[in-house]
Amino acid sequence: MDRPLRIALIAHVRHPIAQPFKGGMEAHAFQLCHWLTQTGHEVTLFASGDSDAPGALVPLMQEHYDRHYPWHRFHGTEVLTNLLDTAFAGALPRLADFDVVHNNSLHRYPPRLSRRDRIPMVTSLHIPPFQALRQSVNDSAAPWCRFTVCSERQRDVWWPAGAPSSAHVLYNGIDTDSFTFQPRGNGRALWAGRITPNKGTHLAVAAAAMACGVPVAALANGATEEVIGRGGVVAAAETGEADTAEALATAIRQALTLDRRAVHDWATSRYGKRRMVENCVALYRTAMAQRDAPAGDVAFGQGDLPGGGVDLGRSAA
């Protein structure tokens, strides 16, 4: 039997990892801490000091930065960049003490540290690429430095010319026990749409609805067709039209004919928390097993890692 792991989970620090969640990244980090701890692993969360999640907490900063440096005002400024660089630089020396690191942050330091010092790491890429993070990802690919995206569509956005072998699709999971299966509906259709421009709110609604056995009818936006799968009908896929009320109406009528138990079973088997955790841990162990895989040494420049590239962890083999 595989032994439990000592896991460092690095979170985004714009908001606290605490309920009520400000967004999907905060919910993901909180739930992953909880589910990994439930399965017997020892998890240490690196996050803002006002976080409240299961396991030990190592504060990257006293409070989440959006409280004093709102993103909409300070994004891209030297003030916020220096604040975040200092916070993450302070955490890097501790990462070599863990079996594996799950990096849920958007900072450029952790993947490069993993690549240089052979620290097993899985980095989850929750958002479309921006230049600093894309460059860090491209610099850091290695057998022990793995990357995940939440859909095949997102994988193609990150690597349009083809993903490396270190990239994986890891679907986000939900606690399906929180959603009660309903064998019958009430004859109504529920409309759901995006709440913010860059968040897949509709995917969360679709996953929750499927867990209750409610078929989904949707337009083919983003990764919708991939995520819904057998749990519903995607308008564009069925009618050849996109983003029209007529196409969606046709999809609704077709979705109403689906077997609700089959929808429920599809959602729980594909998006349940157990499957997500099992897939995460499998990737952790893959990264750990590949720590000594052949790969050339790397030397990062000033700004790529703190201190101009001074070694902060294990030296490269």
Automatic annotation (TrEMBL):
<dbReference type="InterPro" id="IPR050194">
    <property type="entry name" value="Glycosyltransferase_grp1"/>
</dbReference>
<keyword id="KW-0808">Transferase</keyword>
<dbReference type="GO" id="GO:0016758">
    <property type="term" value="F:hexosyltransferase activity"/>
</dbReference>
<feature type="domain" description="Glycosyltransferase subfamily 4-like N-terminal">
    <location>
        <begin position="23"/>
        <end position="177"/>
    </location>
</feature>
<protein>
    <submittedName>
        <fullName>Glycosyltransferase family 4 protein</fullName>
    </submittedName>
</protein>
<dbReference type="Pfam" id="PF13439">
    <property type="entry name" value="Glyco_transf_4"/>
</dbReference>
<keyword id="KW-0614">Plasmid</keyword>
<dbReference type="InterPro" id="IPR028098">
    <property type="entry name" value="Glyco_trans_4-like_N"/>
</dbReference>
